Amino acid sequence: MTSRSFRAATPLIIAALALSAGGMLSACGVGKPGNTSTGQPAVVASFYPLQFATEQIGAGHVAVASLTKPGGEPHDVELTPRDVGTVSQAKLVVYEKGLQGAVDKAVESQGGDRGLDVTPAANLDLRLASGTTDPHFWLDPQRYSDVANVISERLSAVDPAHKADYLKNARAFEAKLDTLTKEFRTGLASCQRKDIVTSHAAFGYLAERFGMRQIAINGLSPDEEPKAAEIAAVSTYAKAHGVTTIYAETLVSPAIAQTVARESGARMASLDPIEGLTDRSAGKDYFEVMRSNLKALRAGQGCS
After folding, report:
1. What is the residue-wise DSSP string for the chain?
2. pLDDT 10s digit of each residue in the chain, 304 long?
3. 50 lies in the same domain as 142
4. Residue 252 near residue 273 (C-beta atoms within 8 A)
5. What domain range is 199 assigned to?
6. Is the CB of residue 187 less than 8 Å from the CB of residue 209?
7. Using CA atoms, how far apart are residues 217 and 257, in angstroms rounded to an integer?
8. Do 205 and 137 meet the contact criterion of CB atoms below 8 Å apart?
C-alpha cells in the first residue's frame, strides 16, 4: 500500500486493520490493552529520536516500540496492519504531527486520547523557503530537552507509580543534552565558514542555535529530486561563498550532493540527521552521532 492510498483509507478500514493486528499482538505476548505481558506500559514512538528519548526517560519501566524500522526513512513511512494494531493497543503514542502522514492517520483513528503530539513542546517556528515548517527539532539539543520534559510528564500520568524515576531520568537526559549544547557552542564558536550546504533541509534548527546558515539542496524530504536549476543555484552559491564541504547523509543516496560538490569544487563529508540509525551511522545512539556531526562540522567549516 502506498502512502497516498493509506492516507486515503477510511477510519472503517483502519479499524479493521487494527482488529486484525490486535489478534497478532495478543499472540505475541501483549497482556491487557496498554500493557505488555510483563505488566510494563506499552509505548509506541513514531521514529528514532522520539523512541530514544522515551527509552531514556522510561528506562526499566516501559516497553517502547518504534513505528519506523531501523534504516527506514521516516518521512515516507508506511504502516502495516500490525503497526496500526500496535497504535490501537498502546498505553501512549509519542509522535510528531505533520511529519508522518500515515502515523497521523493511525493516531487519529486508533490513538484516542493516548496520543502525545510533541510539536507544541518542540516550538517548530522555523519556516523554509517552500513555506513548510522544519520538523527536525531534535538536532537542536535544547528543543529536544523541551520535548523530553513533556514525555516525562505524560509517562508520569500514565504510570504514576514510577513518577519519581521518570522525573529523575528526564533530569539526567536533560543534563546530557545541556552538555552536548555546550560542546557544540564551544566547538563551533570560531569557524572560518558559516554556510552549511546539506543534501536536504534537516539542519536548520542546529544551524540557528549555533550561529550557522543552512543552504539545502533539497527540501524536507531527502529523496525528492531537485530541479537542475536548483542544483545549479546551490553550486553557484557554494563557489561564490567559499564553501569547501558539501554534506551528504546516511539514509539516502549521496548522488545529488556529489553533483554539487563536483560542480563547486568542494569535497564531500557526512552529516547525519539522526532520523534513524543504520550500520552506517557514526555511532550507536543519538549522542554519539551528534558528536560525530560536530566533528564533521568542525573539519568542514574550518573551526579552530
Report:
1. --HHHHHT--HHHHHHHHHHHHHHHHHTTB-STTBBTTSPBEEEESSHHHHHHHHHHSTTT-EEEESS-TT--GGG----HHHHHHHHH-SEEEE-TTT-HHHHHHIIIIIGGGEEE-HHHHT---B-TTSPBP--GGGSHHHHHHHHHHHHHHHHHH-GGGHHHHHHHHHHHHHHHHHHHHHHHHHTSSBS--EEEESSS--HHHHHHTT-EEEESS-SSTTS---HHHHHHHHHHHHHTT--EEEE-SSS-SHHHHHHHHHHT-EEEE----SS--TTSSSSSHHHHHHHHHHHHHHHTTB-
2. 444 433 334 343 334 434 343 433 333 334 455 776 668 999 999 999 999 999 999 999 999 999 998 878 888 889 999 999 999 999 999 999 999 999 999 999 998 899 999 999 999 999 887 778 999 999 999 999 999 999 999 999 999 999 999 999 999 999 999 999 999 999 999 999 999 999 889 999 999 999 999 999 987 666 567 889 889 999 999 999 999 999 998 777 888 999 999 999 999 999 999 998 888 889 999 999 999 999 999 999 999 9
3. yes
4. no
5. 189-300
6. no
7. 8
8. yes
**Which among 182, 208, 233 is the end of a domain?**
182
**CATH classification at residue 222:** 3.40.50.1980
Q: Are residues 158 and 14 in the same domain?
A: yes
From residue 27, alpha-carbon distances to 24, 30, 88, 106, 120 in Å are 5, 7, 15, 21, 36
Q: Give CB contacts under 8 A, 24+ apart, made by 213-216.
A: 215/243, 216/128
204 alpha carbon, distance to own chain's centre = 13
Q: Are residues 32 and 164 in the same domain?
A: yes
CA distance linking residue 245 with residue 202, whole number of Å: 16
142 shares a domain with 29? yes
